Amino acid sequence: MWLAEVIVNYKIGILDPEAKAIQNALSSMGYEDVEQVVTGKYFQLTFGPKVNKETAENLTKESCDKLLSNPVIQDYSFQLKEVKE
Amino acid sequence: MWLAEVIVNYKIGILDPEAKAIQNALSSMGYEDVEQVVTGKYFQLTFGPKVNKETAENLTKESCDKLLSNPVIQDYSFQLKEVKE
């Protein structure tokens, strides 16, 4: 069976206030060596046993385009892994 | 320089309503081959040039324990990557 691990995060130039807040919090906790923070969403999609790698790739792309990401302000990347049932 | 990619997601047994909603939405869009959905948060922490791999690992663990995850209901995993400045 195939499993897709998807990361959705903001495009470069889009304001990410959560990342800024985390960086400020880390800095005030004494972790000043963290120079940059990026945040995003993580999704793991597990496909049924009849789905081959190519179909899994297409299904993941369509799910990201139509549901999991906002293509105006977000980018996504994913990798497929084969898992045992 | 070192960069940590962190995934925070719910522990097994903790209700994940967002994942359920995504699975229902995919199913109603005709993507019924998606058998399971897991959601989580993604964080990327970039460390300054003085931070070595061991320190980066410790800083990432401390950041996750103290700020980025709720250890009662969430697990985290991370991997470190070396990046050019």
Brief write-up:
The structure is a homodimer of 85-residue chains. Chain A is built from two helices and three strands.
Give the helix/strand layout.
The structure is a homodimer of 85-residue chains.
Chain A: E1 2-10, H1 17-28, E2 34-47, H2 53-68, E3 74-82
Antiparallel strand pairs in A: 1-2, 1-3
What key phrases describe this protein's structure?
Mth169, Chain: A; about 35% helix; 2 helices; homodimer; about 80 residues; alpha+beta
Please give the domain count of chain A.
1
Oligomeric form of this entry? homodimer
Distance between the termini of chain A: 6 Å
Number of strands of chain A: 3
The amount of helix of chain A comes to 25-40%
Largest interface (CB within 8 Å) is between:
A-B, 34 and 34 residues
- What is the N-to-C succession of helices and strands of chain A? EHEHE
Biggest sheet record of chain A: 3 strands, antiparallel
Beta content of chain A: 35-45%
List low-confidence stretches of chain A: none
Give the class of chain A from helix and strand content and strand pairing.
alpha+beta
Radius of gyration of chain A: 16 Å
What does this structure look like?
2 copies of one chain form a homodimer. The model of chain A has no long low-confidence stretch (mean pLDDT 95). Helix content of chain A is 33%, strand content 38%. Chain A has a single domain (2-82), classed as Mth169, Chain: A, CATH 3.30.1280. Chain A has a 3-stranded antiparallel β-sheet with strand order 2-1-3. Chain A has 85 residues and is α+β, with helices and mostly antiparallel strands. The first copy, chain A, starts with a strand and ends with a strand. Chain A is elongated and about 50 Å long. Chains A and B meet through strand 1, helix 1, strand 2 and helix 2 of A and strand 1, helix 1, strand 2 and helix 2 of B. Strand 2 (34-47) of chain A pairs antiparallel with strand 2 of chain B, so a sheet runs across the interface.
